[in-house]
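Dear colleagues,

As part of the handover before I leave the project, I'm documenting each prediction I ran so the next person doesn't have to rerun anything. This entry is a single chain, and its sequence is reproduced below.
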Amino acid sequence: HIRIGTFQRQAYAGDADAIGKLVAYCIRHYHPSAAGADMAASATGLLREVVAVTADLAASWMSAGFVHGVLNTDNMVVTGESFDYGPWRFLPYSDPGFTAAYFDEQGLYAFGRQPSAALWNLSQLASCLTLVADVSSLEKELERFDGLYRAAFRARMLGVLGLKPVSEERDLVLLKSLFAWMNETRAAWPQ
């Protein structure tokens, strides 16, 4: 497992060579389509792939009502997986402020904040990659997260509901109405 935190350790040491080796390893073993003409292009390509798989991961949590207990950079992997959930839970009812971790008094990892926590972790990865890539190209890749997340969440939620997409606008109206109703009535999530 190559964690985002693995990159942070090398960036903290200022070791651009180690960051380059991590980038090459991740491309060779996990994201071959990210390979570029040079290290800067490869690092940017790697971030592009990790942003996409992480947006889908966050959408999978949100559409299942899953609450990860500890969404730090050591618990997110460049393959778009997470682990070491700490005290995780599934929502008993729709509540964006629900936290699974007893120690999360500020709601840092609350259900409704999970996509933002995933994006923050990706920004930490991008920060590490600045040792080998251009800041502006890395920022452009990070900007893709919101659109990718919304598309993945829409597709996954429609799948949960057994519905086919109609149009982005109409589907989002439906989903906003659904979640407003769920939050208002405190309907059990599995219902």
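The radius of gyration is 18 Å. The chain is about 55% helix and 5% strand.

All the best with the project,
I.
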